[in-house]
Amino acid sequence: MNRLQTLLTLAMVCLFMGMAHAETHVLYPIDSARTSPSSNWGSCCGVSSFDTGGSTISINACTYQGGYCMGDTHRAVFLFEMPQLTLGSTIDLMVLNGGRSGATGSGSIAWRWTNSPTLSTIDITDTIYSPDVSQTINWSGGSTYSITTPSAFYEGGIGDYLMVSASIGNSYAMSLSNSGSTASKLVFSSQPGCPSDFDANGSVDVSDVLTLLGAYGTTSSDHDLDGDDYVGVNDLLLLLDAFGECP
């Protein structure tokens, strides 16, 4: 325990007592695509294939005339990899934004958590037709767009990857930017949690230090603050860094 006592003393002297602040995250897609329907007769409004997204992704609704399919539908799909958030962190705002041009009108955005790091027709279809959350939007005539994600999508927890599908009800094409400063991206802010507050009294204090020291050298998941499956020096330092009132 001598080494621990020394570390504890040094850390307490150097402790930064400032409050934690919200973090802003900007995520660009790790993959993107433009969907296409089946080439079979009468199937111009579905999804059966996709092409990798280019510098822009052109989307539009299908059209019929006299019962015949006159134009295929196309949707944009973006796949984002979520960062590893600090234990106990919560998301308080998530926005999809970027640049656009072309047609305007009503459309929809579908959101779905996925564990896959790559796009597939199955995952895309699930996102479009069985999303975790979907919303109706209006694509205005501006050169940029900003769409706030329904909080129900992330309040229950997050996944490793997030897939977003965007559509428009206009048969004329609208293009979403997929490169440069106006590229479609996901922006969200997270509030740090208070995982070091083991007794849940609203602050990290001496009681929590003693609790962690009691679990020192074990694999207790309740006290493993750095996620390395071992309660050690790093966990102690993380606790001391959070010492004080919880944010």
Description:
By secondary structure, the chain is an alpha+beta fold. It folds into two domains: 2-20 and 194-245, Dockerin domain (Type 1 dockerin domain, Orthogonal Bundle); 23-191, Jelly Rolls, CATH 2.60.120. It is 18% helix and 36% strand. The chain contains five helices and 16 strands. Strands 1, 4, 8, 11, 13 and 14 form a six-stranded antiparallel beta sheet that branches. A six-stranded antiparallel beta sheet has the order 3-2-7-12-9-10, covered by helices on one side. A hairpin with a 2-residue loop joins β5 and β6 (68-71). The longest helix is centred in the first third of the chain and has 13 residues, at 2-14. The relative contact order is 0.21. The model is unreliable at 8-20 (pLDDT under 50).
| Main pleated-sheet profile | 6 strands, antiparallel
- CATH structural fold name of the largest domain: Jelly Rolls
Radius of gyration: 24 Å
Q: Roughly what is the average pLDDT, rounded to an integer?
A: 87
- The first-to-last residue Cα distance is 31 Å
| DSSP strand tally | 16
What is the CATH architecture assignment of the largest domain?
Answer: Sandwich
What's this, in brief?
The protein is an alpha+beta fold and 247 residues long.
Helix-strand layout with pairing:
Layout: H1 2-14, E1 23-27, E2 31-36, E3 49-52, E4 56-59, E5 63-65, E6 68-71, E7 76-81, E8 90-102, E9 105-114, H2 121-129, E10 133-139, E11 144-148, H3 152-155, E12 161-168, E13 174-177, E14 185-191, E15 203-204, H4 206-215, H5 233-241, E16 244-245
Antiparallel strand pairs: 1-14, 2-3, 2-7, 4-13, 5-6, 7-12, 8-11, 8-13, 8-14, 9-10, 9-12, 15-16
Helix pairs in contact: 1-5, 4-5
